[in-house]
Amino acid sequence: MSGRRSVQPDAEAVARDAAEAIAQAILAAAAVAAKPFHLALAGGTTPKRAYELLAARPLPWPRVQFWFGDERCVAPDHPDSNYAMARSALFERAFLPAANVHRMRGELLDREAAAREYEAALPPKLDLLLLGIGPDGHTASLFPGSNALREKARRVVAVTGPKPPPNRLTITPPVIAAAARVLVVATGAEKATAVRCAFESDTDPIECPARLLRDAEWHLDRAAAG
Prior knowledge:
- The mean pLDDT is 96.
- This protein has helices spanning 11-32, 45-55, 82-91, 111-121, 173-178, 192-200, 222-225; strands at 4-8, 37-41, 64-68, 70-72, 128-132, 156-160, 167-171, 182-186, 217-221.
- A six-stranded parallel sheet has the order 1-9-8-5-2-3. A three-stranded antiparallel sheet has the order 4-7-6.
- By secondary structure, it is an alpha/beta fold.
């Protein structure tokens, strides 16, 4: 098997484990380089708890530039917005500089323009990319069967997914491949099949996008680890 796995008893322990990994990455980067640390965030319940734990840490937050792996095409204060979740769980709690947060403008009617705008701003290489997976094996908003999984040039695209809200913006496989470090969080028995697919099958990523994360650093609870 490829990839490194940390298996914890439950979702709370996974959130703590992931928060610690992110904090240590930020501190390590700050100790050796006077440059921004580019961190891309994921949506979801377990990442949200990790963000809450991170917000309480005395980290060099002004050095961190925040990005997103995907976003729902809703207003930034909508309950389904990944940005809204991260804002309440992390940005506001840690009193982060607004200029350090780069959100996808999912509310724009022209989704193609929103995707190209974010693509132009996104750094060539993320220092840390945090991702989750769904029971169907999707990651970010790269769903099974999506043409975006075949993308080799564009780094951010507009997609229509099978889950509500369907219209979304998402990074593409080249962004995942270029990231210096990819950290995946997954909890719950409903994720076990997707985790198994990522590690143990030869399924094409077009059918199981989690296969793109095979060499990532995985933080799982026992139920998701199967």
